[in-house]
Each structure stands twice: as C-alpha cells, then as structure tokens.
Amino acid sequence: MIYGSINNDLQKLYLIVASLLVFGLVTLFSISSDPFSFNSSFSRQIIFILFSLFIFFLLKAVDIKAIHDNSITIYLISIFVCFIPFFMPPVENTSRWIDLGLFYIQPAEYLKCATVIAIAKYLSNNQLAVKDMSTVIVPVLIASLSAFIVLNQPDLGTSVIILVPVLPMLLWAGVNNFTIFLMIIPFITIIAASNDLAFNIWAFLMFVMFMLFQGKLLNRILLYFANIFAGLLFPFFWNNFLNGYQRQRFLDFLNPDLDPMGSSYHIIQSITAIGSGGLFGKGWGQGTQTQLKFLPVQESDFILSVIAEEFGFLGISLIMFLFFMLIKTLLDIAFRCSDYFSSLVIVGLTSILFSHIFINSAMTIGLMPVKGLPTPFVSAGGSFMLLCFVILSLVSNFSKN
Amino acid sequence: MLKIDNKADIFHYRTLMAILTFSMLLLVGRYFHLQIIEHERFFSKSQVNRVKAKASYAPRGLIVDRNGVVIVENSPTYILTVTPYEMKNIEDQFDKISSIISVPIEEIERRYKKYYRGRFLPTVIAKNLSFAQISQIEEMKLDFPGVQYERFDERLYNTELNDMHILGYLRELDRETIPTLDKSSLYRAGELIGWQGVEREYEKELRYSKGVNYIEVDTYGREIENLNSNNIPAYPGKNLVLTIDSELQKFSRNLLEGKKGSIIVSKVNSGEILSIVSSPSYNLSIFRGETSSKEWEELIESEDKPILNRNISGLYPPGSSFKIVTAINLIEKGLLDPEDNLMCAGSYTPQGSSNTFNCWKEDGHGLVNLRKAISESCNVYFYETVQLIKLNEWISTAKKFGFNQLTEIDLPNEIVGLIPDKEFFIDTYGRWGWSERGVLLNMTLGQGDILVTPLQSLRYINHIASKGKNTAKLKINLNKPTEFYEPINLSEQTWVRLYDGLYDVVNSDGGSGWRARQIKTGITLYGKTSTAENPHGEPHAWFNGFFDLNGEKYSLVVMVENGGGGGAVASPIAGELVNFISSNIEFLAKK
C-alpha cells in the first residue's frame, strides 16, 4: 500500500518543482552570454516563473466544482480559441500562435488541459459499464477532435501529446487492462525496432507482461509473436520498400521544423555533447559543445543535453530522479484524493507532463526524431512554463477533495 | 464535494508506476550507455573532431543592359571579425585597428557590443574594408591575435547608370523582417536581400543558392579542415538582362538634368522598356553604409522627392492627351461628323449656366473640325462635343486604355492612379454637389480628379500605336516572355481620324507639338502634347508620341513636372530623343 498523506505529497511536489526550476535556471545562466540583460533566456525565465506563480495562485482560488460542472463548456471554448490563429496572419508560416502584442500565446497548450478535463468528466459520470469496449470510444473521439485541429495548425508534436492521456485515463477508469495494453504496444514495438538494444530489452519486457495477463495462453503467445514480427518487419520495410525520397518525405512530415542544415546534424551534436560529459561532466559553463553553440536550441529543446554535458551522468541522473519523483508523487496524489473526477484529471495531466519529459529526453539521445517539445519546469519558454504551473495549480486544487 | 468517490485500483496505480519506472530506466540506461560506456569515444570526438556546419555563399547575379553592358556587379569587400577570448588587451587592439581602417574606436566598440554572441564566437567589428586595409592587418598579424577577416560581396553600381528607381538596392536583413518574407527559412539575419526595384522583383533569380560547408574545428572553435565529402555547394544567382539601353538611358537622364519629371521609351511590339528615367535621382552609394542618418533624412524630406519613382508611383493629371478619349467616343458612336466645323471664339458657356470656360487661345481658333481640334488642342471644340457623351461611356473608354489599372510591369510599388466614376463623385461632392455635364467639362481636358502615372500614359500611347491590337505588356526583364493586354476594338475609320490628328500635332504648322518635328531625320512622328494644370504651381508639360523606324515601332512619354507648356517644354525634349534614337538605331536594333 501507499503511505503518507496528501498534504505531505503536495509539499513534496512543490519541493521537486522548486528543485527543477533551480536546476533549469542554473543551466540557463551557464548558456546566456549576458545573463542579466533583459533579453537573456535566464532573465526572461525568471520573469516567466514569477508570472506563472501569479497565475498559479489565481487558479487555486477557482472552485473545482465550477470546473467540473462546466468542463464541456471549457472544452468547447478551448476548441474555439484554437481556430482563431487560422484567421490571423501566420507566424513563421504556421497558425499556432495568437499575437497579443507583448507576447504570443499558443492556445493548443491549454486545449491539452481542457481535453483531459472533458474526458475525466465523461469517465467519472459513466457508472454503467466502464468495462465495456464502447466506453473507450467517447474519450478517443474527444481527444481525436482536439488532436485533429492541432495537427492542421500544423503541430504534430502537440497533437500527439493530446492523444497520450487517453490511455492512462481509460486504465484508471477500469477499462480492461489487456485492451489498453493491446492499443499501445504496437507503437512501442515499432519505435523500439529502430535500435537493436532497445528492441531486445523491449521484447523481453513485453514477454513478461504478456505472461502476467490472464486469458488463454495461446492467444497471448500469438499476440506476442505478432508484435515481435511487426517490430522485425518494420526496419526491413523501412529500408527495402521505401526509397530515400519517400523516407525523407516521411521524416519531413514528422519534423516540419527541420533546419536546412539537416536534423541528423542536430542529433549528432546532441549525442556528442552528452557522451563527452562523462560521469562528472565538464563543469558549469565549461561545456565546449554547448558554449561553442554546436548544440542547437539549447535553451529549450536541447537543454537536457547541456545538463548532461556540463553536469555529467550524475547531473542527468539527478534530473531523471527528480522527474521520476515528480510523476510518482502526482500519481500518489491521484490515487489518494477522495474524488473520482479529480483523480482522473490528475492522471491525465500527469501523463501530459510525463510525455513531454519522455519525448524530449528521448530526442536528445537519438531515440526519437527531432521534435520541438520542451521539458517541464526546466526548458526556457513562457507559454509552456505557464502551462506547467496551470497543471500544478489544478493538481493542488483538485487534491483538496 | 463531488458525487463520486475515488475508485482507483491499486493494480492500475502499479501498472502506471511500472511504465514510469521502465521508461525512466530506459532513458537513464541510454544516458549511461552514452556517458559512461562510450564516453571515451565521444569525449575525443568532442575534442578533435567537432564538425561545424557553416553556410557558404556565392555571388549574386549581375544586372546587364540589352547589349550586355554591366550595370550592377559585385565588388569584394571585407569584414573584420574578432574572437573575444583569443584576444589579448582588447582596448589596445581596437585602438590599432581603428587607426588602420580609419574608423573611430567608439564605432568599433559600439559594433562589438551590438553583435557580441559569446566568448568563443567571431563578432563583426567593421565592414566595407578594402583589400589594402586588409593587407595591412595581415602584415601585422602577430599583433592581432583573434582577428580574422572574411570576404563579403557588396553591390557595385556603374557610376553613370546608378539609376536606383529601376535597379533598387540591397538591404541587410534584421530579425524582425525575416518572418514576413516569402521563403523565410532561406534567410538569416545579416544577409542581404533585394529591397527595391528589380533587385526586389527578381530577388529569387538574382539570389545565390546557399550551400553548407562541414568544417572540422578544434577545442576552441578554430577551423582545422574543410570536410569536402558532405559539403553542399553554393551556386551563384542568375544574371538579369534588362530591356534598357544604357546609352539611351544616359541620354534621357541628361535631358532631364536639373528638371523634375520622367522619360520613358519603349518598343511597342514587344513592350520592352528601352529607357526609363525618373528625375531627380540620387546616388546609390548611399546604401553602402557610409551615409549618415542626416543625409538620409534630407533625402526623404526633400521637396523634390528624389526617392519617388515618378514613372510608376508618381500621380499627375494627364491634360489634353485625354481629348483623344473624347474623340474616340465621338467617332465610334457616330455622334458627329469629324468634318463638321464648330466655332471657337475663345470661350464656352454651357446652356443655362453663367460660368464661362476659356480656350487656351484667347482669340479663339475660329472654325475647327476634329483634326484641327486635336492638332491645335482646342478646348472649346471638346467642351461642346463632350456634352454629347455619357459619363460612364467616357470612363469605360479611358479604362480600356489601361487607366485606373496596373500596367503589370515587373517593378514593385506600382500604383493604379484614378479615373473618377459616379461613386467617387458622390463620395467626394455629395449626391447633389456635382453634375455629369460639369465634371465631363474637366475630364475631357484630362483635368479634374483624374490622376495617371507616366507609365500608364505610355501604355495608352502604345495601345494607339498598335491600333488596339497585340499591345505587348510593358516589361523590363528582356527574358520575360511577351504577353499582351486585352485588345481594344475600334473601327478602322476611328484610327484613321485619330492618326490624322496626331500627325498634325507634330507636322502641321499650327500643331501644338511642332517643336518635336523631325526635319533632319525625316521620321514621321505622331504625338499629343498636354499642359496639365495642377495645384502645385506651373502646369506639367507632357508629350506622348510614337513613330516607325526600320519596321519597328517606338513610343515615348516625356513629362516635366511643373515644367510649363507641353508644346514649349516637352516637345523639344521628345524631338531630341527621337533624333538620338534614329542616330543610334543599329545599337538599339541588337537583341
């Protein structure tokens, strides 16, 4: 069983977030050439954090019953706001941002929260047959609508993130584990197939998981081998049935923001920076890859590579531990809070944070294609920092129940 | 508070924890693999084999005239950069550099602060350096650790032909402008982009395609080796061949020396612009960074508006050349017999009105038929006859000849001008503040609210010169395919009557444009003068004309802003132009 109380959890949560913020600021200080000027990412980050804190306290005052009762309205308004950029002059050739003069806001960030709340509302009200397959359909539709709009902005990364919370929330609501398991594993298998070591580890883990489920043994073994087979076939298909041009087209679709200099160049620079850091790192402000600007977008997308280079494996392990504790604490809160709706919302929000952490880290070490997703509480950037604090605020608000 | 209790299952919690644990272990495992197991390899790679991608450039395309005379080329200049951390005693070095390149040390320090990007990165401290200055620095290399120079092409303009109104100029891109560009991903801050004239219009063609060099650098970012295998080469931009003839262009420029106005000469059958001058102009060297902001302000605020390209962005009342529009309506609709004589006694008073409208000739022209009315530009004839025409028919004829529309020439910032219509008059003067008859009295003289650009006037004369058929669209890029304007269908009889009038303007004794007559060359010049009244002072002097020479049709427009009478001021200039063209015809005929 899980021990402790919700209040302890919240304190722990704030402590972890504070540590991550400090870690991020220390790193930003290292890469800013003139940290105290108003334009440096360091100073800007401090301003963003202060502003986000303000919003955090503001949101905490909102009655959660109001959120619960109006969750569909909130969802529809968020969808509506996401349409606004389509009618405004494009920013950097996309319709993702709304220009507010002083700064831009990205409505898709908040659609993430609204989607989670809408799904939670549906699942918490549906007491009839949560184990029924049809229960799966409505949440998938809600998330798909959001994801589809965001995909057309176009923003593939965010639309994937919007889809992610569906699975953990369904699981939390008691939908048959095996169903969910079957929904997710083919994707992991295909991703893992790009790397031999990862694929072997995954094959083993998958076997263990298949064995743990109940049901007919033969079915489980057949499904297991179907997955392994798909994983083995994918690289073969990729290499033999797609020509270079088609592969590039596919990769370009995955990475519309690609720099003309080439994405593999970015990954190579990132991996070199990380690998050269070693156990202890090169020291604060001493990372040659970082300081010579070999690393691209180092203040947001590749900030973990900076940490890995300058603070070494110890530093990155500490960050990973903090991330682990962050997610674990959030799950503890979700498990412990007394109300079902709140619990579901927290699980959904947690999975958004987690997918950011995972996708961003995996990108820096070449496990995933280059995608401009920031890391929670560490990466520079106002819009996303604000979202993280909004999530934090919702969690602390909802946990009171 | 809410109705339903949390019914989360411990098994679900454990499942999520398992996924979390697995994912984090996967990540940490990968970090472990890179940072501990493969550390040696990556560390040595980071020490000696750091590949830096660096953009490489090629020259921008040249701009040449129709005979291959180079008008705009590239001149290599140098920029000086410093890598801060390699420098010893920065103050001292800046002081020495300042004396060699004769730039005040404050300016160098200002640039250094402005462009500073980091201790290890080169920062630009001076631009536009000559080869001589660079050699001096190169000689004293040991005194200047951390100082490097790079080649940087600047535009070099032919001193006699630096006609910025058509050529345009390049401008350094800043971060704010880039997102507004068409293909913004191709541009980086600090690069040059065509900002006006053909440099802007043909930016895509003139611009080089950027390449990438993968360069091996050492621990300190110093370049060691160029890794040729993966380099993407840069390609130079395409050259742009203009329809301009340099000699004619220079000659036209001289004709307008000290005057405000414009001259345009074109070939009617191909739409090629042979010469296009807007006066006054100014020296393009202003865009090479040596201009103070004070000089700039003077240019912008100058009353003569040197920045304005009068040919396509200047608006003027066209004056009497619009009498042709009235004449076309009269003949085409059969509203009167062109041979009929009307009496001009020097003034005209509309029926039931107390206002009197004067002819420019106070004593009157006596008996006037259409031909004489055109050639001597009699106002009274058109005052009387325009009363037979409906306003909207008159407007539609004017618009057929391209007024109130773009000529679609391949130059940026062209404007459409104004042919006022009923809506305009109602908006401006109120529903009862004007009358169709009243405004037509002004419009038939090309006055009132009508505004045209000189280039529109050229298109008008080209339509007439080609009798409305196959009038080529005006263009300035010789290799642009020829396109045609909408044909204008008028009866042959109308054209004959018009040509008679236009012939007499230049070639009859009373013709208003007799000063343009070609006695020496024997060329038959057709034309129409205008003396356009305007609120800014003296009238604008216009001459629009065309002629045949060796089987080729040429057309020209001369406009002298506030110059005085079209006959006295513009016609002699037109005469000299035709004379020059006929004596240089073998040169013009090329291409």
Summarize this structure as a short list of keywords or feature phrases:
heterodimer, A: 401 residues, mainly alpha, 17 helices, 2 strands, B: 591 residues, alpha+beta, Penicillin-binding protein 2a (Domain 2), Beta-lactamase, 2 domains, 5-stranded mixed β-sheet, 5-stranded antiparallel β-sheet, 21 helices, 35% helix, elongated
Please, could you describe this protein's structure?
- The complex is a heterodimer of chains A (401) and B (591).
- Chain A has 401 residues and is mostly helical.
- Chain A has one domain (6-399).
- Chain A has helices at residues 6-31, 41-60, 64-69, 71-83, 107-125, 137-151, 156-163, 166-172, 177-192, 196-212, 217-240, 244-254, 263-277, 288-291, 303-336, 340-364, 382-399, and strands at residues 98-99, 104-105.
- Chain A has a two-stranded antiparallel ribbon.
- Chain B has helices at residues 10-37, 39-48, 90-101, 105-115, 131-139, 164-167, 197-201, 203-206, 246-255, 293-301, 310-313, 323-332, 370-375, 379-386, 391-400, 422-429, 436-443, 454-465, 492-507, 566-583, 585-589, and strands spanning 50-56, 63-64, 70-82, 123-129, 147-157, 170-172, 192-194, 211-217, 223-226, 240-241, 261-267, 273-279, 342-344, 347-348, 357-358, 366-368, 525-534, 537-549, 552-560.
- In chain B, strands 2, 3, 4, 5 and 10 form a five-stranded mixed beta sheet that branches. Chain B has a five-stranded antiparallel beta sheet with strand order 12-11-19-18-17, sandwiched between helices.
- Chain B has 21 helices and 19 strands.
- Chain B is an alpha+beta fold.
- In chain B, helix 9 (246-255) runs antiparallel to helix 20 (566-583), helix 12 (323-332) packs across helix 15 (391-400) and helix 12 packs antiparallel against helix 19.
- The model of chain B has no long low-confidence stretch (mean pLDDT 85).
- Chain B folds into two domains: 54-241, Penicillin-binding protein 2a (Domain 2); 247-589, Beta-lactamase, CATH 3.40.710.
